[in-house]
Design goal:
79 residues; three-stranded antiparallel beta sheet; 5 helices; 54% helix; globular
Length: 79
């Protein structure tokens, strides 16, 4: 089982383009088991960095990958 990290979060959004927090929390979408507030912390970090955006006017809160997030995902995949 993989340890949840920012690369896994970015890859999930690159694959699906948009996800709600409930969708994120599904192990099948992450390939890792999210624990407690760790997932929210990672998502919030990616929002602050500009790699993920929160879609306006959508309920429940939905996250989408940005161009910067796609580039960062590619960079991390090479590392």
């Amino acid at each position: 089982m993989n340890t949840l990290n920012r690369t896994i979060v970015l890859n999930a959004l690159i694959k699906h383009e948009t996800l709600t927090m409930n969708d994120f929390a599904k192990e099948s979408n992450l390939g890792a088991s999210p624990g407690g507030k760790h997932l929210q912390l990672l998502v919030d970090e990616q929002v602050q960095s500009g790699h993920i955006q929160i879609l306006n006017g959508v309920s429940p809160c939905t996250y989408s990958i940005t161009d910067e997030g796609i580039k960062e995902g590619a960079r991390l995949a090479k590392a």
